[in-house]
Amino acid sequence: MIEKSKIFFLIGTDMLKIIEFFKSPHIQISLATGFSIIVLAYFSKKVLPEPIGYLPLAVPPFIASIYESVLGKYKNSKICTTWYWIVAILLATALVIVLSWS
After folding, report:
1. Residue 39 contacts by C-beta under 8 Å, 6 or more apart in sequence?
2. Is the pLDDT reported for residue 13 higher than 90?
3. pLDDT, position 101
4. Is residue 69 situated within a structural domain?
5. Between the CA of residue 41 and those of 5, 63, 92, what are the distances in Å?
6. How far apart are CA 74 and CA 80, in angstroms?
7. Which of 7, 13, 36, 69 is most buried, judged by most C-beta within 10 A?
């Protein structure tokens, strides 16, 4: 096993700070929501015959807002598992795109 001092030498302190930064559930949810918004904007502008309305575009960020409030109230419960909410955001994105296709 590699000692901690060797890990600092191999990776560097700045890289470890970045890795710790991306482990934060707030950052992970924000990245998923940002990816969702970019995908929705691309599909709305380039792929779909008509632009997606304002209300359907707000569904994935609304799910992210719900996660943040649930995380504030129930910090260590199973409902606050980050990947559940990331999957919900990405599924909502796919659902908005599919429902807007017709």
Report:
1. 93, 97
2. no
3. 87
4. yes
5. 45, 17, 14
6. 7
7. 36
Token pair listed for 49: 């015959």
Nearest in space to 58 (alpha carbons), one of 94, 8, 92: 92
* Inside any domain, residue 94: yes
pTM of the model: 0.81
Number of domains within the chain: 1
Query: Is the torsion defined by CA of 43, 48, 54, 59 positive or negative?
Result: negative
Domain that holds residue 62: 24-101
The verdict on residue 32 lying in a domain is yes
Q: What share of the chain is helix, strand, coil (3-state, %, to 5)?
A: 80, 0, 20
Tens digits of per-residue pLDDT, 46-94? 998 999 999 999 999 999 999 999 998 988 888 889 999 999 999 999 9
Listed in sequence order, the residues at least 6 apart from 60 whose beta carbon sits closer than 8 Å to its beta carbon are 33, 36, 37, 40, 89, 90, 92, 93, 96
